[in-house]
Amino acid sequence: MVDAEVKRRPGGRSARVRAAVLDATFALLSTRGLEGLRVAEVAERAEVHETSIYRRWGSRENLLLDALIEVSEQLLVPDTGRVRDDLIAYARDLAAFLATPLGHALEHALAAAGDDPDARRARERYWVSRYERSRQMVTRAIERGELPDTVDPRLVIEMLVSPVHFRVVMTREPIEPEMPARIVDALLAGVVGSSGTPT
Amino acid sequence: MVDAEVKRRPGGRSARVRAAVLDATFALLSTRGLEGLRVAEVAERAEVHETSIYRRWGSRENLLLDALIEVSEQLLVPDTGRVRDDLIAYARDLAAFLATPLGHALEHALAAAGDDPDARRARERYWVSRYERSRQMVTRAIERGELPDTVDPRLVIEMLVSPVHFRVVMTREPIEPEMPARIVDALLAGVVGSSGTPT
Q: What confidence tens digit (pLDDT) does each residue in A99-141 have?
């Protein structure tokens, strides 16, 4: 689950400014989407000077990058002790986040963003950050002996999350409550072996 | 595989006009993307009157709908007699099509399109058409006894194609040549059972 409010961390004025600016960024993304994100309005809402934002982040794109990474770090990775439960909970949380205004805005911003160097760098850092965290569900399962060590964590995560993103971005179909479990069961046991029943 | 040139069908002037207009639509989508698709330019390129296009299709959105459905009908569904080979070939063809300028333009048009009634209808008809054709690979495998009849063809197709679309639209990573086979093996045998080796 993602908390749209950035947690206030100790660290003095600099940390407070960052938190206020990111909060304002999230709020504007939630209400207006990426197109409506203007640095001047972020500054006004965060009660800081626009020049402070440019001094710290350099560009609107870098601010968006920082916001995306921040969101990524707030997405909790479940650790229930069972890989099936972890993966189902993760896919459910992802679907729930993408259904929020902020999640919807970030998702469509990522899908619509161009391929200029800033956008590319933001996108790469975002997905690296996401995969680094989510792959832990699979590596822990391998360490527990629940999954063979030949399993590729990246492939498992990609096959888990891509049907969720596919529905939100491409087909725009609702994600049924049972869909995460059906994906995970097909992924873990295979459609030949499982016959569609839970493992 | 998709042939970007619409096949000329018998049927007189009406069919020739439709083919010429769709050809022009594909050509403009390939070179300019969705944003650059103007009915006046389609008409000029197809050597028909702009009013003929509006009389037949009603709107630019309906023309795009017809173009999307036409592309869908040209995507061949493999029928090798083995579900693994069919699914791998289908995912490879999809990845190859999305790497063409036309495929890239249509994919990003679908991802970026709004949710107004015309766009929604176009999108729905497109995906219904795609699923109706692609699910045949799974239903034939069930009829052959290769897959249990409890398998949901729609889930299999969705889990097969979504990682391909995910890379093209969201992460923008290249699709490695071996990726389709890895997806299909994980999907058929499961990551627990297969240990990542081919079935």
A: 988 888 888 878 877 777 877 887 888 899 899 999 999 999 9
**Chain-centre distance for alpha carbon B49:** 29
C-alpha span between B188 and B25 (Å, rounded): 38
Among the partner-chain residues A169, A189, A197, the one whose CB lies closest to the CB of B190 is: A189
Supply the DSSP string of B52-63, one letter for each residue: HHHHHHSSHHHH
Instruction: Give this complex's ipTM.
Output: 0.82
Query: Residue A85: CA atoms inside 13 Å, Cβ hemisphere, count?
Result: 5
User: Does residue A7 lie in a domain region?
Assistant: no
> Is A93 inside any structural domain?
yes
Q: Which of B128, B149, B166, B179 would you mutate first to test chain A, the one with the most A CBs within 10 A? A: B166
The domain containing residue A19 runs over which residues?
A: 12-59
Within an 8 Å CB–CB cutoff, is residue A191 touching chain B?
Answer: yes
How far does chain A reach from its first CA to its final CA, in angstroms?
Answer: 25
